[in-house]
Specification:
Elements lengths: L4 E8 L3 H10 L7 E4 L8 H4 L17 E2 L12 E2 L21 H9 L7 H10 L1 E3 L17 E3 L7 H12 L15 E4 L4 E2 L2 E2 L2 H6 L8 E4 L2 E9 L2 E9 L2 E13 L2 H11 L2 E2 L1 H6 L6 E2 L5 E3 L3 E8 L6 H6 L1 H14 L11 E5 L10 E6 L15 E8 L6 E4 L10 E3 L6 H18 L2 H4 L4 E4 L7 H11 E3 L29 E3 L14 H25 L5
Parallel strand pairs: 1-2, 1-13, 2-10, 5-6, 13-25, 14-15
Antiparallel strand pairs: 3-4, 7-18, 8-9, 11-12, 12-13, 16-21, 17-20, 17-23, 17-24, 18-19, 19-20, 21-22
Helix pairs in contact: 1-14, 4-14, 11-13
């Protein structure tokens, strides 16, 4: 198939991080780059129509189809766990929200022993690929850029009920803001989205399309990596299955893992890199003991508080009408506006679950609709959802292989609501939501809480109810944590501890989860990784020594 051979860099995973890495590393025409993707092309219409995310989750054409283990904190429930299996990865199926997180997140990484990862350090890497059109240049103030590959625009639809919620939040002390990405995201406003004129903008469009014609870049789809090849402590290449045949490619310089917080630890464990006890349990020879591989899983859990309303239009009743749905299609086809441009959430807010929190620790995704759970029809009455999540969970879980078979999905156990602090934040978050909804700006719509229900008042009852109605926001991170201690997997230069020729550059390296949506922080990680890779090899060439 023309894929096997020797390359300078092999990138495993053509998702959010992998597409940017392929673009940046292949910009040097002297370096041969191989990009491997287990999924196929992103030439599927539902990827590009924003509301199409509804038809992508659980769709094997674009989604790995994972599920979590049954979670005690969710009262024994298991959650579907979509992950992108297509060019662009999760940027092809996600909610399109552009969110950096808080300065405190990155300053915390630096304070944990990761120099070069503070807010002031990472901000230039966010800006390097930014194409900011949701704000005017006079509002950039050194924080934003235009002209990069990562397109950012305003939502192309508005709802009266969301405007009213924003007013109510202001009355509750949460100020109106227009930009969540200044380092402090406290406030309420409309999310900026990764769209271009009402069409999803994924990393395959932004980074891969401009680079795919380069003769030194090879892109292989339907190529599932089974294991990394090693010679002693050096990772030398990858073995992968493409169209039913096993193939091998070698790396002169580095193999770069960009398969995400689920795929990267799974591949490492299958390769004999990880916790020795786990590997031996499945008959896999331990090539290199790294006990942190697959541990430290963190995710955001959203409590989907729901309210019936009166005297205002929501998506619930509009969707019941065939005429209305036809108008949605017409409006999108001719104007690229209307409900078909909707991200899963349009309005957001960040605030504190209680005044003792130093910075905002909860995030809202507010939607002009309600549904019992994903995949089920919308409720037949006017209503809105005020989904609230703890952006700094203290619960920690894991990703662990269950078999030496690469096709077997790993066990994904986030351990939601496993700590007392997380359960307390969950209860307090429902109370904050009730306070917002009780404000005068929403009174004329007579909001009536039906999930979780006003009969629940105690911490214990609210935490239990949160376990019953909560879902993931699909933000798994931290399973190959960056750091310098014994449980860390990669160094602050993103090199795997104790190995040569292996770097990890995806969401799995986050020491702690960022305070908000994780797609664009992952892109920043890849941007910084590409710069470090170039620096390390230029330095090595100057010394005429091989890079470790």
């Amino acid at each position: 198939m023309g894929v096997e051979g020797t390359y300078d860099y092999i990138i495993v995973g053509a998702g959010t991080a992998g597409c940017l890495l392929a673009n940046r590393l292949s910009a040097d025409p002297s370096q041969r780059v191989l990009l491997l993707e287990a999924g196929g092309s992103d030439n599927y219409h539902w990827i590009h129509i924003p509301v199409g995310y509804l038809y992508l989750m659980g769709n094997p054409r674009a989604d790995w189809g994972y599920a979590t283990a049954a979670e005690p904190g969710l009262n024994g429930r298991s959650l579907n766990y979509p992950r992108g299996k297509v060019l662009g990865g999760c940027s092809s199926i996600n909610g399109m929200i552009y969110m950096r997180g808080q300065a405190r997140d990155y300053d915390g990484w630096r304070q944990m022993g990761n120099p070069g990862w503070g807010w002031d350090d990472v901000l230039p890497y966010f800006r390097r690929h930014e194409d900011q059109w949701a704000l005017e240049p006079d509002a950039f103030e050194g924080l934003h850029e235009r002209g990069g590959e990562w397109r950012i625009e305003k939502p192309r639809i508005s709802w009266e009920i969301l405007d009213a919620f924003r007013e109510a939040a202001a009355e509750a002390g949460i100020p109106k803001i227009d930009d969540f990405n200044r380092g402090s995201n406290e406030g309420c406003g409309y999310f900026h989205v990764n769209q271009r004129s009402g069409i999803r903008w994924n990393t395959a469009k932004g980074f891969l399309r401009p680079a795919k014609s380069r003769p030194n870049l090879t892109i292989a789809t339907h190529a599932t990596v089974h294991r990394l090849e090693m010679a002693g402590r050096r990772v030398t290449g990858v073995a992968f299955n493409q169209y039913g045949a096993m193939r091998q490619a070698n790396a002169r310089r580095e193999v770069i893992m960009a398969a995400g917080a689920i795929g990267t630890p799974q591949i490492l464990q299958l390769s004999g890199i990880g916790p020795g006890t786990l590997l031996q349990q499945h008959g896999i020879a331990v090539r290199h003991e790294l006990k942190g591989v697959g541990e430290n899983l963190q995710d955001h859990l959203q409590i989907r508080c729901a309210y019936k309303v009166q005297g205002v239009k929501t998506m619930n009743e509009r969707y019941q009408s065939l005429v209305q749905r036809a108008s949605f299609a017409f409006e999108y086809a001719f104007f690229r506006r209307g409900p078909m441009t909707m991200a899963p959430s349009q309005l957001g807010a960040f605030t504190r679950s209680d005044p003792s929190r130093e910075t905002p620790n909860i995030q809202y995704h507010v939607q002009p609709l309600t549904l019992p759970k994903f995949g089920e029809p919308l409720d037949p009455f006017p209503a809105f959802t005020a989904s609230v999540c703890n952006v700094r969970p203290t619960s920690r879980g894991h990703v662990r292989i269950v078999s030496p078979d690469p096709s077997a999905h790993p066990e994904i156990r986030p351990n939601y609501l496993a700590t007392e602090d997380d359960r307390r934040v969950a209860a307090d978050s429902v109370r904050v939501t009730r306070r917002i909804v009780s404000m005068p700006a929403l009174a004329k719509y007579r909001p009536e809480e039906f999930r979780p229900g006003l009969d629940l008042q105690s911490d214990e009852d609210l935490a239990r109810a949160a376990g019953e109605i909560s879902t993931t926001i699909f933000h798994p991170v931290s399973t190959c944590r960056m750091g310098t201690d014994d449980s860390a997997v990669v160094s602050p230069r993103l090199k795997a501890h104790g190995l040569e020729g292996l770097r990890i550059a995806d969401a799995s390296i986050m020491p702690t989860i960022t305070s908000g949506n994780t797609n664009s922080p992952t892109l920043m990680i890849a941007e910084k990784a590409a710069a470090m890779i170039a620096e390390d090899w230029q330095s090595a060439a100057a010394r005429e020594l091989p890079a470790a």
